[in-house]
Amino acid sequence: xxxxxxxxxxxxxxxxxxxxxxxxxxxxxxxxxxxxxxxxxxxxxxxxxxxxxxxxxxxxxxxxxxxxxxxxxxxxxxxxxxxxxxxxxxxxxxxxxxxxxxxxxxxxxxxxxxxxxxxxxxxxxxxxxxxxxxxxxxxxxxxxxxxxxxxxxxxxxxxxxxxxxxxxxxxxxxxxxxxxxxxxxxxxxxxxxxxxxxxxxxxxxxxxxxxxxxxxxxxxxxxxxxxxxxxxxxxxxxxxxxxxxxxxxxxxxxxxxxxxxxxxxxxxxxxxxxxxxxxxxxxxxxxxxxxxxxxxxxxxxxxxxxxxxxxxxxxxxxxxxxxxxxxxxxxxxxxxxxxxxxxxxxxxxxxxxxxxxxxxxxxxxxxxxxxxxxxxxxxxxxxxxxxxxxxxxxxxxxxxxxxxxxxxxxxxxxxxxxxxxxxxxxxxxxxxxx
Length: 434
Prior knowledge:
four-stranded antiparallel sheet, WD40/YVTN_repeat-like_dom_sf, single chain, 8% helix, mainly beta, 35 strands, WD40_repeat_dom_sf, Methylamine Dehydrogenase, Chain H
């Protein structure tokens, strides 16, 4: 009762089925792009994003094997929905691999045990009509901060008491003019950077007040990261340059450092021209306007690894545009030569030979980049290994991933994978063996 089936024309192959017993369907329709299915049950309108429809490699919809004149099609994806619970919309991990926190579509946040998945307690909540969209947990586990889809930011101080009881204490709450892009805690956790597309705020967590507000004249494509060895230094990365700034005043230290090397730009141009003329004309402008969407510190050599994608105007579309991914690593020991300014001789390395295999970046584990390839295998690529060999570890079912939740699939520093599955969190341990 109430199952949805999606068929592929002209062969009428079943590619997707959603089993939902919450009631009969009164009406349904596809979105204009064909990526979503809208259906009405009683007084409720549900919107579904099957991975079969939204994944970027649309040739999978037509994937067939012809053997001796017989056409063999891939098995359809079957999903089950029980209608219970509120979907996870934001995820944050603690630094020790013991806990994770989920923000949900009803505005609530809860801490879970990272081994059993058991919910330990509700931390706090936004308005019930709001959805948590960005969530961060400090390195020490002492602070947590979140933003909902109404641009309301809440920061709390956490304390684990005897008997495993969690204490939660207010720090700050404030409504901003636009949604948050990124949260970043300072090395000593005295300060919190709140970054939006057009502004940056620095809050003092102890004094519980704003220390700095910086409005930018236009939307930014940058990503902030803490300098791996200089605690007072913030690193600003955008597609064209790197800047070093002081906590908490955001004052520029020295000159900016150019990023993209000519080799990386040439590789991107070659990949762009491999498209058909119609595809190239529709994407050529977006590919020249890029955004930094991920950055991490490779502690083994004090390097910063970051990635950019063409900016298509939305997080979802940018994350799907993996065909022009650019990954670069920069030796952070060459920043602030003698503690003063960035060195123009800083070693920059374009990560070649692996970017075209990446569908979604998951994180860093030991000396390797962890990523999901186009066939949904969790893979690693060792940045210190000169062979360029990519190792496949295990497979994730494609119906676990869609455009709305793929960016929340992450690997922690211990090699455990956290992936949203049917609106909740699935944890894979010991799957990455290096």
